[in-house]
Amino acid sequence: MERISLARYPEMTIEQARKKAAEIIGKIVEGNNPGEARRAIREEPTFRQLFEEFAERHGKQKRAWVSDAQRYRDYLDRSLGGHKVSTINAPMVTRILSDMERAGKANATINNVRALASCIFGKGIEWGRCSTNPVSATKTRKKVSRDRFLQTHELPRFFASLADEPNETVRDYFLVSLLTGARRANVLAMRWSEINFNDKIWRIPRTKNDEPQNVTLTAEVLRILKMRRSAATPGADFVFPGDGASGHLVEPKKGWKRIFDRDELSQLKRWISEAGGRFEPLIDEETGQPTYESMDALLERARGVARALKVQTEGARIPDLRIHDLRRTMGSWQAITGASLPIIGKSLNHKSQQATAIYARLDLDPVRASVERATDAMLKAAGIGQTANALEKEGG
């Protein structure tokens, strides 16, 4: 015997109840049991519960687990967490990815979130917790090779603002990331036991490509590390300790934002002064003391003063720079200063030549020199014997 509730009166009329009862009886005659189906749905996990099981049985063993957990919290939990897994369909996942795209997230980030959701459903199928993977019906985004790095005119501004960072752990983390070119996760989890001060080597036992890496430590990096070691708590494990469960610093996005906020404010103040204006602290009328303003409030006020003076503020903020671009900056400046691609690949621990190839297009000076040499040769062969630059100077 099965007792099946249809609905309550008056939400469902008598006539509607009769039709629904006939429909259910028809399914029972066909061998289906609506009661069992309803019980299965009630026992079915939500996506959040499936993720928790995924974390314990699979996720926490991954090296990228910290990043995966962050991606789940940032992009998947709010939209999918409370839904039963069988109710999640491809359009729901597509909407999440499309929202990320509209928000300006990088294609690589969108693809990583998509891959995480697909992996969760894939393990759910393997463990008998769900039967389909709705992510498989969604599309991946085209992978675009990013070539952003700190340019010559940006470096003085970046270092000046970084020097004013009040959090020494955050400041040193960014400096070591930039000056070693090591991967973000490896720098965050750097241990004192991995550093050989005598040989000036940082031995990373396991990297993203599953191979160990020896990172050469320059005099500047060694100076930073020695200062941190002298100030470290006795018995400390991590070079950049943190208060979280990992024990080390977790990606300091707020600290990264502070660098560019400070730099923009500095630029705006200078331009306001050059335009004959003044940007002074706000004074409390009762105490006569400067009032506290958050950095966001200071920036908004400085932008307003600049606009009132008709100051052109384009370029006040260093644009579109991410933490991972610090690693690319090292490789880029190696290319600019003449290092070969194999040397760059070795220093950055790239497993394939394709990963290093991007640095071949970052500096146009060698390309320009080659073109000018070819131009000289062609003009000489034509009996002219002057470069196009020389002809322009002579008005030719």
Concise summary:
This protein is mainly alpha-helical and 396 residues long.
Note the main attributes of this structure.
396 residues; three-stranded antiparallel beta sheet; disordered C terminus; 17 helices; mainly alpha; single chain; DNA polymerase, domain 1
CATH topology-level fold name of the domain at 47-137: DNA polymerase, domain 1
Q: In which range does the helix fraction lie? A: 40-55%
If strands are numbered along the chain, what order do they take across the biggest sheet? Answer: 1-2-3
**String of helices and strands:** HHHHHHHHHEEEHHHHHHHH
Strand runs, count: 3
Major beta-sheet overview: 3 strands, antiparallel
Assembly state of the chains shown? single chain
Level-2 CATH architecture of the domain at 47-137: Orthogonal Bundle
> C-alpha Rg, in Å?
30 Å
Assigned CATH class of the domain at 47-137: Mainly Alpha
| Poorly predicted sequence stretches spanning 5 or more consecutive residues | 387-396
End-to-end separation in angstroms reads 101 Å
